Amino acid sequence: MEKTRPLGFTRRTVLTAAVAGSTGFASAALTSSPPPNGDAVDLVKRLTGKTPTASDRLHLVMPQVFPNGYTVPLTLLIDSPMTESDHVRRVSVLAPRNPLVEVATFHFVPQRSEPRVSTRIRLAEPQYVLAVAEMNDGTLLMTETWVEVATNGCK
Amino acid sequence: MFTPAPRVQVPSAAANGEVFPVKTLISHQMETGLRHDDQGNAIPRKILNKFICRHNDVVVFSVDLHEAIAANPFIEFYLRATESGRLEFVWEEDGGGIYVLEHHLTVA
Amino acid sequence: MAAASMCWSTTSLSLNDVVVIRAMSKGIGDRKFRDGAGLSMRKMIAVSIAVGSFILLADRSQAANRDGGTQLAAMCASCHRLDGGDGGIPTILGMGPEMLTRAMLAYRSRERPSHIMRAIALSLSDEEIATVARYLATLNK
Amino acid sequence: MKSRTRREFGRLTGGLALAALGPQLAASETKARVVVVGGGIGGATAAKYLAASARTIEVTLVEPKPNYTTCFFSNLYLAGLCSLESLTHGYETLAQRYGINVIHDSVTAVDPVAKTLELKSGPKLPYDRVVVAPGIAFNYDALAGYDEAATQAIPNAWNAGPQTQLLRRQLESMEDGGVFLLVAPPDPFRCPPAPYERASLVAYYFKQYKPHSRILILDAKDSFNAQDLFLDAWERHYRGMIEWLPAQFTGGVKAIDVKERSVRTASDTFKAAVVNVIPPQMAGQFAQQIGLVDQSGWCPVDPTTFESKLQPGTHVVGDATNAGDMPKSAFVANSQAKACAFAIAATLTGSERVPPHLFNTCYTFLSPDDAVSNAVSFKPAAGTIKIVDNFVSQVQESAETRHRTAREAHSWYAAFTRDTFG
Lengths: 155, 108, 141, 422
Known about the structure:
- The complex is a heterotetramer.
- Chain A is mainly beta.
- In chain A, about 15% of the residues lie in helices and about 35% in strands.
- In chain A, strand 5 and strand 6 form a beta hairpin.
- Chain D has two domains: about 30-135 and about 280-355, 3-Layer(bba) Sandwich (FAD/NAD(P)-binding domain); about 140-280, FAD/NAD(P)-binding domain.
- The interface between A and D is small, with 10 and 10 residues.
C-alpha cells in the first residue's frame, strides 16, 4: 500500500523489462511518493525520458464513476493502419495514484493484431488513468481519462 | 490443489485477413503482494505477469500484467490471420507456473 | 424540538401507566418463559416492562411526536431487541442517556470500532442522539 | 385526541397490546383505515408500525400465505446449516399484540376512487390509505426456455419455500464430482450479494460432503456486489471450487434447456448436475396489475413517504420500489416500511412529520464462521434517495472479527424478525 514504484527508471525498464519475463519484484520494494495529480506529461517524461504528445488517436475508454476499485473496465483503441511502416508497438496503462503505477503493457504486431483491447483493472482511488502508446517511429502518444472509484481496489 | 481454469473464446474459422475477436479469462487471485494477513505478515505477490498469444509459433499479441490487473484476468483482443493453424494462449505466473490453451483456427 | 426534548427528559411514568404495563407484562412474560431462556423472574419483569413501555410510549408520543424519539428508536429496533433479548448484538436497554450518547459519539469518531454503528451515528445529529438516548432510557424505567 | 386523559391512554394501549381483552374499546373509535397488501418484510413491518404508532388507525394486513419464510438466511438452509422452519414466521403476534386484522386472502382489484380493495373471497375492504408490498416477480420472457413450469425441474429458489427445498434436495442427491451451475441475474434484483453467498455456502456444503464437486456461476453482469470480499473468501475457503464467468466473457445467458439441464450462452453450452436459474426481476405481480409500475419495471415512489408517484393514496415499500440508491434487501424493506408507516400516521392523525432515517444493513456469510457486513445510510434528495455513507467489511479482517460478525448475524436475525413480525 505504502510502496510506490520508483519514478527514476528508464523507458526501457518500463516498456520492455516485462518482455523478458522479469517484471520487477525489486521495483516493488523501492519507495517514492505519488506524483501530483494531473501531472501526466511530467510523469511519463520521468518514467521514459521522453516527452509524450497528447493525441486523439488514442482512446482510453473507462467509466467516469465506478462503484468499486477492484474491477474497473478499461478499453483501449488506437487509430492506426497497423502496417509495417505505420503502427503502434505497444501501449502502457498507468495509474499514477495506485501504490504501483504500472497497470499493463499491451504489445501489438503489425498486420496480425488490431490495436484494440479490453480488460479490467484495480484502482486505489479516484484518479486520471493514462495510456501511453509507443509508435513504430519511437514517438510517444498519450491520453488520460478521469475515473472515480468509491472503494480502494488495491488492497 | 488449485488449478487456474483458463478459458478462451475464439472462432474456429475466419476469412483470410478478416479481424476476429478473442476473449480470454482465467481464474486467478492475482495476489498483489500489497496485502497483509491477520498476523500482519505481508502476503507474497503471486500474479500472472505475462500473457502471450502465438499463431503457428509466432507471437501475434502479448500483455505484461502488473499488480493492478483485476483478479480473474479478462483480456479481449483482436487478431487477423492469413493462414490456418494453431493458436496458443499462454499465461505465465510468478514463480514459473505456466498455463496453456491451444485452439485450431481454419482460415478460408 | 429542543423544548419538547426537555419535556421528555423530565417525564416519568405515572402510576396509571405502570398498572397498564403490569397487565401487558402477563402475556409477554408467558411467551418469554416459553422461549426457555434461563431468565430470572426479576429479569423477566424487566423485559416485559421494556416491551410494554415501548408500545406505550410509541403511542403516547403521538401527542408529542415533535420529539421524534419513537421514530429514532424504531430505527434501533431493526437490530437491537427492545425486549431485553441479547446475544451478539448488545442490548441498548439499561444504558443511561449519557452512556448511550457517549457510545454513539465514540462510534462516530471511530474511537469504538463498528462500521454499522458508525453509519448510524454519522446519520444522526447530536440532538437526535440525545433524543434517542433519552427515549431509550425511559423504556427501561 | 390531544385532550385525552392519561387513563384513557392507558386503557387503549392495553387494548392494543392485549387485543383479546379489549377490541371493543377500539371499535368505538372513528378510525382511519389502512390496508397493507403483502405480508413479507415490508408489509409486516408497515402494518406493525402503523398499528403501534397511532391507535386511531385500524390496520388490516392481507396476505394469502399463513406464514412467511425469509429469503435472507435461506442460503444457510441450502448448505444444511439450519431448518426452513427456523426461518418461518407467523402473523399471530401482529394480530394479537398489535390488534392488526390479518386476513389470509388475495386482493383481486383496487378502486382508487371509491378507495376499496376487493378480496378474492368476495368482500370489499374500504381504506383511507393502502400500502402495497408485493415483492418481486420474475421476468421469464428474458430467458428462453425458462418459465414458471420449468422451475419444477430447475428451481429459481429466490422466494424462500418449496423452491428452496427443491434445490436443497437436488444438491443432496447430486453425486460427488458434479457441477452446480448458478445463473446470476442482471441488476437490479433482490439482495445483491445473495447469489454469491449462495455459491459460497453451497461450496461449504460440497467441501464437507462432495469435495470433488464444483460450482460455475454464469453471470448477467461483469462485476458483482462485494466482489473483492467474495473472491478473497473463495480463495481462502474453497480454492478451485468456484468459477465465475462474467457476461463480458460469455456474451450472456441466452437459453435454458430444462430437459438437458443445460444453459446456453452466446458462445457455449454448459451442462450441469444441478442448475439454479435466478431470473431477471421486476416489481411483484400485484403492483403491475394495479398500475404502480413504470417502464423501469419497478414502482416509482416519493422518497420520504413512499407514496406511489403514479397513484396518490397508495404507498409502496420493499423490493418492488425504485428507491434510488436503496438496494432490494429485507433491511431496506423494513426501513422503508417504518418511514412509510410514520408518514401515513402523521398524515392521518395530523401530527408532525419527522424526516425519515433510511438505512441498509446486510450480513453475508462467506462460510458459517466467516461473515461480512455492510452498513449504508441514505437520504431523500432531489426526488430520489441517495447514499450518504457506505461502510463495508474489509478484505484483510482477522478470522476473529469475521467469526464475531457471523455470530452477530445470527443475533441480528433474531432481533430483526422480532422487529418485523412482533
